[in-house]
Specification:
350 residues, binds adenosine-5'-triphosphate
Length: 350
């Protein structure tokens, strides 16, 4: 089922408008991440989809149906919360069956469906246990199975992996992807972790201060961020930011008089190298202060025009503490105007 927001705003009872004119469509069967820093409006947006919150203005459609005024029960979406909220006194199987029991699905039918779901999420060897006897990842699986019990057309996950340790997080994100592909249910999940969103989602919606900054495929966000906020939010290590003034002479090599449009420059860590490259680069003076090797990765700290920057392409054998000319790949360089909009690369695509 696709989800369409048209000019949706949300004002909380204290009078503060926290979501401004949200306009987007989530296509049926996709896995979408709502990504943004704390307070950007992710959970509020999710709650507008679930019906736990009512839009102050605008309309929300599930497919052809206008659901703007329907409550959570009437919308029939499946939800998984951060803390899983399983019933502690019930077995795994009873937890999964519970929503169907409430919906008065006949006993044999709901048992069959619960067993099928336990298998899908791979807890079929745990069905008699109580949630307290399960690991975090297993509880998460049960919560997903329970949310799928009534065959929702939309599944909502609010920070589903945040309570898991790093290794389990990676495992469960692959599992969420697998389960979503097996069921084809339109899935929307909230996260503040860009790498989680990049690994999992078909498309990512980046929110900041209740405004959609960009809504696009992960690769598009990485290679063609529309503004400095998106460029800085996506990517690891974080995008280097250097003021245009600090490297204006270097920028002039390529941009000529257009250099004056540039206020800030973002440079990906992998775009700064001492090697000579066949692709288009600009030469920028840098001073390397330290290079650390992590396994097969490098992390070099340098100063560029008085700014601290990081490169992943400079080896520990590089000259330390003397000024050298680095080559900066234009494919990893973005230029922004004074309000943070991208002015290079020009146009919609990078
Ligand atoms: N019940 C409420 N009443 C008033 N303001 C609220 C309420 N709930 C949230 N807000 C405000 O709305 C804004 C968006 O909050 P929301 O919880 O949607 O953000 P979020 O991106 O999910 O953040 P987090 O990652 O911290 O959960 C914040 O400024 C928050 O303070």
């Amino acid at each position: 089922m696709d989800v369409t927001f048209k000019h949706v705003t949300l004002t909380y009872p204290n009078g503060v408008e926290v979501l401004h004119d949200l306009d987007f469509q989530i296509p049926a069967g996709q896995l979408i991440a709502l990504l943004g820093p704390s307070g950007s409006g992710k959970s509020t947006t999710l709650n507008l989809i679930s019906g736990l919150l009512r839009a102050t203005s605008g309309t929300i459609n599930f497919g052809e149906k206008d659901v703007t005024k329907l409550d959570a029960l009437q919308r029939g979406v499946g939800m998984v919360f951060q803390n899983y909220a399983l019933y502690p006194h019930m077995s795994v199987l009873d937890n999964i069956e519970f929503p169907m029991k409430m919906a008065k699905v006949p006993r044999a039918e709901r048992r069959e469906r619960a067993l099928e779901l336990a298998k899908l999420v791979r807890v079929d060897d745990q069905i008699d246990k109580k949630p307290g006897a399960l690991s975090g990842g297993q509880q998460q699986r049960v919560a997903i199975a329970r949310a799928l019990a009534k065959r929702p057309s939309i599944l909502l996950l609010d920070e589903p992996l945040s309570n898991l340790d790093a290794r389990l997080r990676v495992e469960m994100r692959e599992e969420i992807r697998r389960i979503q592909q097996a069921t084809k249910v339109t899935t929307i999940f909230v996260t503040h972790d860009q790498s989680e969103a990049m690994h999992l989602a078909d498309k990512i919606m980046i929110l900041h201060d209740g405004v959609i900054q960009q809504y696009a495929e992960p690769q598009k966000l990485y290679h063609a961020p529309v503004n400095q906020f998106v460029a800085g939010f996506i990517g690891e290590p974080t995008l280097n930011i250097v003021s245009g003034d600090a490297i204006r002479e270097s920028l002039y090599q390529i941009f000529g008089t257009r250099t004056q449009l540039i206020d800030q420059v973002g440079i990906r860590a992998e775009a700064i190298t001492l090697a000579e490259l066949a692709e288009q680069t600009i030469k920028v003076p840098v001073t390397i202060s330290r290079v650390t090797a992590y396994g097969r990765d490098y992390h070099a700290q340098l100063t560029m025009g008085g700014h601290e920057v990081v490169s992943t392409e400079i080896a520990p054998s590089a000259p330390i503490a003397t000024e050298v000319l680095a080559n900066v790949r234009l494919s990893g360089l973005y230029a922004f105007d004074p309000v943070g909009n991208r002015v290079y690369p020009e146009g919609g695509e990078a």
